[in-house]
Amino acid sequence: MAEPNRRMIELVEVGRAYTRADGQTVRAVDNVSFIVPEGEFVCLIGPSGCGKSTLLQMIAGLVEPSSGAIVVDGNEVDGPGRERGMVFQGDSVFPWMRVVDNVEYGLKCRGVGAKERRSVARDYLRRVGLAHVERAWPRELSGGMLKRVAIAAVFANGGRVLLLDEPFGALDYVTRRQLQDVLLDLWEEPGRAVPTVIFVTHDVDEALTLADRIVAMRAGVIVDDIPVRAARPRDTDSLLLADMVAIKHKLLGHLGLERALARPAQSESAA
Amino acid sequence: MAVSAGSMAERAGGRTGASPPRWLWPGRALAALDPLRLAGAALFLALWQAASLFVSPIILPGPLGVFQRVAADFWSAPALSYFGLEDASLAGNLLYTSENVIIAALLGTAIGVALGLLSARIWFVRAAMDPVMMTAGTVPILIAAPFLLIWFGVGRTSAVSLVTFYVVVILYICAQRAALNLDPIYENYALTLGADRRQILGAILIPGAIPEILGGFRIALAGCWGLEAVAELLGSQTGIGKVLEVLAGATDPQGILATLLLLGLTAILADGVATLLIARLAAWRAPAGSGA
Amino acid sequence: MSVPARKREWAVSVAVFLALIGLWEILSLVYTAEAQPGEPMIAGWGTLFTRTLLSLSDYWQGGLGVRSVADGAPRSYLAAILSLGSHSGATFVRLIGGLALGGVLGLALGLGVSWSRWSRRLVELPTQFLRALPLLAMVPLFQLWFGTYFFGQVLFVAYGVGVIVFAGVVNAVRNVPQIYLDNARALGASRAQLYRTVILPAILPAMRSVAFLSLGAGWGAVLAAEYLGAQSGLGYIIVYAQQFGLLDRMFLVALLFILYTSVSYWAIERLFARLLAWSPAEAAR
Q1: Sheet with A84-87, side-by-side order of all strands
Q2: Domain B62-281, CATH
Q3: Distance CA B225, CA B241 (A)
């Protein structure tokens, strides 16, 4: 196996500015820099409007930065591509294709042969628990099932970087918890290089369950960068560990949800 | 749904203070006239002019000539009286055509909406009228024109009846659909607040259906002009259709283009007025995307 | 709706239909005026399908072993059927030719213009204007340009359909939800693949209403063209008969025409039901 890339995703003074209808300039993202090593699972968390989704869209290549540069795996980002797979918050599954055709789509674009891509697609559908609805139309599936299809499609496409923009935000609590497990299963799949993940959310528990590292944003800038060292697999009790609770208080403070001042935090070195 | 650039700006900026006034239509109108669109219109005219230079004026008159003709013939076109037209001006004939269209549109809307709303709520009306209306919706209403000409003779009545029938069918289908598609949540909510059936009809059903009905009115109005013109072409002594027929017989493409231009502008103007009225009457509706 | 309610509705519809048929028959017995000897103004159903039908053989030009009435041959059902068939054929060819030509050109140009952001805005104002010009009023113009030749009429229909399809395609491509485009690109689709696998299927639901609008405009255009100077077709028969006040013939041919248009709408509906099997809106219909 090749040496893991310590600078898999690198943001250098990235900014994105808009001009509002009344002429004022708004900086959705303001001079953000950070580095993500290969294989790390990073959660981007912050209140509404903090710029986390904009930042993710820039890494994906769907939005162009106004300033700065984004380098992924040694190449500067210039538009979307399959090396940076993306799972969206809304329903992105194509309604005019059956489930299995959706999962195959990326492979088909690349020119992979019919038999091979069908077997890869079936494999991932099995892994996300949807083998029985292979031939169904998307309109026949629930929101949670559609999300599984989207995840299967992105993993089947085999990118080294995975970007998720509040993917479970529109789902109910139970489905959300199930999909978190599905995601981690696929992420930790043995026998292939571990993808680098950036996961945007505003759910603190979700971030604590999933991430190796949590980056908090507010008003377009990064305000905190916290490593999460709890062992995997994490369960409900993992969230009750002392250092996890401390992190949670910090994050709630960044989100503006702490009523009293946080207790003097255990020293966590911020980047 | 995916995040577009516009909404990102709003999310990034957050909510700060008062939003600009909604009734900002001068600004919106100006935005609609952005340079690229204007350039497109100018390019179209330039291509037309260029084409007219290569082709004989009998086939394609140039835009400048057509515009001048519109201005010249608008109030007075003596040549037209030579062909037996009562009114020797484009304006006069346009007035006749417009009168017919407006009468037919209003009459047809009144009848069509009444029938449509009734059919949505009274199953008997629906069962009786639907087969007739749905069939009429598929066949071009023009099929009735020769019959009307025989029954009512040449003149206003046959043309107005034809266009009225057209409007009735469209508005019937529209009103019925609007009433049926009204989200039951509004009626249920009103019931839990203690409203009775009559109050619901007046305060919920009719206002709720109005936006879609007015949309149908706009669509119907757009089709009225052509239908009226053909009715006049088939048998009339006056009106834009008659003017077109006369000019075609005299092999006058410039005149025809000028008349068509005028008719088109009238249709656009009428559509604009209708849109403004609709915006006022249905102001509560969330703005739909621009473009028909 | 419950089954008994649906049966009730159906019963009323059938009753109304039968009542209309009966009313017509009663009218024909009451109002016995004749435009010409043997050609009643309001022909009862019996007369319609015998004498009136026979009289339609007047419109058969002759050929295929059946001589035309103008040449002295007697009227016959065969000649009537042949005349109806050939004139229907002329109408169909105008319609289908115009739909195909206008549809293909409108689609191709619409997709082409949508390729870049600039071209779409460039053509917007001229397109809106052409769309606002009443189609039916342009018959004299097309007659001036193309005479009353058959192909000119096909071009007229094609123009009417083309403008609708073009505007519809441009609008539909513009309204393709951004999330599908983003998703496809993030999965690695090229521009061409994007058009073929995402944009074309995504505009199909909008194309359904465009198809119905085009069909309506197409039939209207064909009828207008045939009323105003064609030498063949069902519209031509109607207008020719109108000049002699032969209401019964007009009525019979009009009935046939209504049958054709209804069938065509039904066919398009079935076609799109299959093409849109995947769409939630279609499932709700």
Answers
A1: A84-87, A161-165, A196-201, A41-45, A213-218, A221-227
A2: 1.10.3720.10
A3: 10
Question: What are the tokens at A216?
Answer: 């908090």
Helix (H) or strand (E) holding C123: helix C117-132
Instruction: Examine residue C66 and state whether it is found in any structural domain, yes or no.
Output: no
Helix (H) / strand (E) containing A154: helix A143-157
Residue C248 sits at the vertex; the CA angle it makes with C243 and C250, to the nearest 5 degrees, is 55
Give me the amino acid identity at C82. L
Residue C114 lies in a domain: yes
Which ranges in chain A belong to alpha helices (H)? 52-60, 99-110, 114-127, 143-157, 173-187, 204-210, 242-254
pLDDT in tens, C177-232: 999 999 999 999 999 999 999 999 999 999 999 999 999 999 999 999 999 988 89
Shortest Cα distance from A148 to chain B (angstroms)? 17
| Residue C213 near chain B (CB below 8 Å) | no
Q: What is the widest separation between alpha-carbon atoms in chain A?
A: 60
Task: For residue range A20-65, list pLDDT tens digits in order.
Answer: 888 888 889 999 999 999 999 999 999 988 899 999 999 999 999 9
Domain that holds residue C113: 76-284
d(CA C282, CA C118): 34
Residues of B in contact with C219 (CB under 8 A): 139-140
Q: Which of residues 149-178 of C touch B (CB under 8 A)?
A: 167, 171, 174-175, 177-178
Task: Using alpha carbons, select from C128, C109, C116 the residue that is nearest to residue B32.
Answer: C128
CB-CB neighbors (< 8 A) of C203 in chain A: none
Residue with tokens 């063949």: C232
Cα distances (angstroms) measured from residue B21 to each of A21, B28, B286, C222: 12, 12, 15, 49
C278 with C169, same domain?
yes
CB-CB: which of A49, A88, A90 is closest to B12? A49
More confident position, C95 or C71: C95
Q: Chains contacting C with at least 3 CB pairs below 8 Å?
A: A, B
Angle between helices B156-181 and B123-138 (to 10 degrees): 120
Distance CA B115, CA B108 (A): 11
Domain contains C218: yes
Query: Domain A1-83+161-168+195-264 - what CATH class?
Result: alpha beta
The whole-model pTM stands at 0.86
Whether residue C64 lies inside any domain: the answer is no
Domain residues of chain B, as ranges? 62-281
pLDDT for residue A193: 86
d(CA B65, CA A187): 71
Q: Are B259 and C98 in contact (CB under 8 A)?
A: no
Which residue out of B3, B4, B30 would a mutagenesis test of the A interface target, given it has the greatest number of A Cβ atoms within 10 Å? B3
Q: How many angstroms separate the Cα of A124 from the Cα of each of A134, A148, C197?
A: 11, 10, 22
Q: How many domains does chain C have?
A: 2
Q: Return the structure tokens found at B218.
A: 């706009």
